[in-house]
Structures are given as C-alpha cells and as structure tokens.
Design brief:
7-stranded parallel sheet; 7 strands; alpha/beta; 298 residues; 12 helices; single chain; 9% strand
Length: 298
C-alpha cells in the first residue's frame, strides 16, 4: 500500500483488541477483517500488541504474525506496533521486526518489569532508537511504576529518541508542561476518558480503546474535540463516557471485548491471567453498551 501519512502516529490509532477463538487461539482472519473495518469506519490506523492486544500472553511467533497481519490488511503506514519488552535488547528486536514488516512507527514503554531510574530509561530508549524507526513513548506509571515526567520526555525528545508520547496518567495538567518543555513533541491521548480535555490542550492523536466497538462515533468525537467544536463534542462525550471510562480500569480488555461482542464484532474471550468480568461488572458494561447502541452510536 502506498505511504500517504506523513506522521503515522497522528490521528485515531486504535489499540486493537485481538480476537480469540473459544480455545484461545488467535483468529488472524478476524483480526485482519477488524483492522480493515476500523479504517473503513474512519480510524487512521491500529496499534497491535499493546496491553489491549494481550501481547504479554502471545508467543513470539503469534506476536510477529499479529503485526504482519495488520500490515497486510491496511498497510504499514497505518500500523504502529507496541514493542514493550522486559529488556531494551528485546524491545529493539521487536522494533526491527516492525520496521522490516513495513511499519513506520512503534510505541515503547519504559522497562516494564524493573523500576528504572532516569538514567536507565534514557538508555532504554537509546538502544531501541538504533532500529531506525520513529518511537512513540508510552507513559503508564500505573502499570510500569516508571513515570515519564514532562522533564524526562523533553530530554528524550531533545536527544531525538522519541517523536510523540502516549500520555496515560489521566493528569490533564501535564499537557501544558509538556508543551512548555518540548513544544514540538506530539501529545497523544492515552486514556479514552480524558479525550476531550487533552484534545483541547493540544493533543494531535489518540491511541484509543473504545473505537474497537464504536469507531464512527469515536472518530466524530475526536474530530469535534480537536476542532474545539464543543457543541458537537460535549454531548457525544457525555454519551460515550460511561464506556470510555472502562479504558482506565484494570478489566479494560474484558470490558472492551464485551462491548465489541454486543456491537456485532468479534471480541471473544481473553487469555489468562485475565478472567471474564464478574457479574456486576458485566452488567454495567452491557447496560452502557446497549444504551449507546440504542442511541445510534456506532
């Protein structure tokens, strides 16, 4: 597919859920169809092998095939794989795999099994940058226990190690400090339930969860938010927020997959250690999804 996206990390990049069969094998055909459906629904691309894609439970062969499947389905300029790994060497190898598959950007957490200090974080990003593919940093201190502070992001950007950051702290105040310290670093919305706030603060992309189930309404919300069109954005945001907030909960994979199933997509089960939602959680997600669908959100 011909490359057309100058900055392929911008826009609505869906952190894709991975369809699994009942025996928990990966349904690669369903995944390819899902990627095509998301782009047809207005999304700009996909982010495979993130936490929503259950990358931690995949074999190396499965993880590589997920990337190759997405590229074959929608083109490498629309695929930004997550390349998180225990060590920088492994993360670099995943960056090289993504590069060789045709991807033009990757998304990288800091070391995710070791509480790294700033010196270690910088070296981690230096090593992965050697793969020669643009790196989007992913700040999720809730899970990694390593905080990519605005000052640290500015240092990584000044050294040419990152082009953008997926900001997942939920602290919308950080957007302004990041813009002050690194004005040209692209800010990407990292958690669905602060989309409007970060869009108004200058975000130029959204690494998104709930478009897996409702792409068209999510894209409409994103575009209105970026345009500052609150007349359109605010009612949509209120309507979607009972679902969007699940993206920041521990059971976000199960919740989004359930919403996908209800919306006629193939979400399917999750691999252990994730278990199905408990009855109370399932009822809440089911009710919110069915209400959104009844209101015409798609």
């Amino acid at each position: 597919m011909t490359t057309t996206r100058v900055k392929p990390w911008r826009g609505v990049m869906v952190a894709t859920a991975l369809p699994l069969r009942e025996d928990l094998s990966v349904d690669f055909d369903a995944y390819a169809e899902h990627c095509r459906w998301l782009v047809a629904g207005g999304c700009d691309g996909v982010v495979p092998n993130g936490s929503l894609g259950e990358y931690q439970t995949l074999t190396p062969e499965e993880r590589a095939k997920v990337v190759e499947t997405a590229v074959a389905a929608i083109g490498g300029d629309r695929v930004m794989p997550g390349i998180a790994a225990y060590g920088a060497g492994e993360a670099r190898r995943w960056a090289e795999q993504a590069r060789d598959a045709g991807c033009q950007a990757v998304m990288l957490l800091p070391p995710n099994a070791y509480r790294a200090d700033e010196r270690i974080v910088v070296e981690h990003y230096r090593e992965v940058a050697k793969a020669g593919v643009p790196v989007v940093a992913y700040n999720n201190p809730l899970d990694t226990k390593v905080d990519l502070t605005p000052a640290l992001l500015a240092r990584l950007y000044a050294e040419g190690l990152i082009v953008a950051v997926k900001e997942f702290t939920g602290d919308v105040r950080r957007a302004y400090e990041i813009a002050e310290l690194a004005p040209d670093l692209d800010l990407l919305v990292g958690s669905d339930d602060v989309l409007l706030e970060l869009a108004l603060a200058g975000a130029v992309g959204w690494v998104a969860g709930y478009p897996n189930a409702l792409p068209e309404s999510s894209v409409a919300l994103y575009k209105a938010a970026l345009a500052g069109d609150l007349t359109t954005a605010l009612p949509l945001y209120r309507a979607l927020h009972p679902l969007l907030r699940w993206d920041s909960k521990t059971v976000f994979v199960q919740a989004i997959k359930l919403s996908m199933d209800l919306a006629g997509r193939k979400g399917g089960p999750c691999r252990p250690p994730r278990l199905p939602l408990v009855a109370e959680e399932e009822a809440l997600v089911r009710a919110a999804t069915e209400k959104a669908l009844a209101e015409g959100l798609r």
